[in-house]
């Protein structure tokens, strides 16, 4: 049995409201955005899944602030424009999209909040084939902006690998025909085979799937048995044309022909790699970082918690307000003469765990208070935005600031007090003491 108990007299309902705000870690001066430069070294171009293109660059505000666009349909200012700090939830086009946690994670885990060296290391650790060189700044910016636009505008980056056929046809006979998107040059192929006799593999190429030519140096002798085998092709062996504007082109159609003196073999899992071009319509490293950021953002959404105050059973009387509980571990602080106590009436000075009842010992004559909270848990993030002060016929692009921030968690608690009844109770207690 606890020492602390709520009186049945002068009880009123309690109302709580949570406020989570994000603010800059350091004071921000007046922000001004200028028209973007034409010759920025970090400009890049990305291709969306629908075939459209867009230019990307880091948005720079004076003095020395970096940001990303939160709306693909917004416009950049044509003259110096002042910006003010805003909130993500206040942006009209995002009212139907719940993506603030993901955008916040992307900002915190990409350039410029993370250095290029650190970002490249994390990509390699995640298993992405980055190669020996680090990702460049313009590639990191392009991937980050593309990931944000996917969340805020539903625009998907083209991530289809160009070395994977769009169609595969078997037959007639021991022939497998592959159709590609575009005209790639092949750098080689590999195949899984199962045969009871030696087999020979040969690759052919065609521009129209009617007239075929052998690919020089593509023959591969495979012994009987089961295994995976590969063949690297010579440079230029699948080149059909070349120009200064388009570079080298290969063929749209390729086919693999099998010959053997034994029973028909099993040929499966035929893979290709390219030469003379990248493996995606976008730069390979842009695609890798884009996939990494969206995967991490999705995981962050599932793993983050929302701090909350459970007030289902909370009531107020002359001295105490409660009981309350928390949804995640929280360190709560009261001020202005209020004190947090446990069910035995002892002051709480540590982290409150979920499922633990606690109370507010209120200061005399008060009906509201605000508790500030901190938590060791990974709380759902908030994005610090900036919006233009000027009103224009077309809305200037709202932006997400890529700067260090602090999050403030506050719980406003209010209750109604029957002052007349409390006054009468106080006089009764006074009479008992005389």
Account of the protein in words:
- With 434 residues, the chain is an alpha+beta fold.
- The protein folds into 3 domains: 12-21 and 308-376 and 405-418, no CATH class; 27-160 and 283-303, no CATH class; 165-274, Jelly Rolls (Sandwich), CATH 2.60.120.
- It has 5 helices and 28 strands.
- The chain has helices at residues 100-108, 116-125, 137-153, 284-303, 419-433, and strands at residues 12-24, 31-33, 44-47, 53-56, 59-62, 65-69, 81-87, 167-170, 175-179, 186-195, 199-206, 213-214, 220-222, 225-232, 241-243, 247-249, 253-260, 266-274, 309-310, 315-316, 320-326, 331-333, 339-341, 358-361, 368-374, 384-388, 399-401, 405-415.
- The strands form 6 sheets. Strands 1, 19, 20, 21, 22, 23, 24, 25 and 28 form a 9-stranded antiparallel sheet that branches. Strands 2-5-6-27-26-7 form a 6-stranded antiparallel β-barrel. Strands 8, 9, 11, 12, 13 and 17 form a 6-stranded antiparallel sheet that branches.
- Strand 5 and strand 6 form a beta hairpin.
- The longest helix has 20 residues, at 284-303.
- The chain is elongated.
- Mean pLDDT is 89; it is low at 424-434.
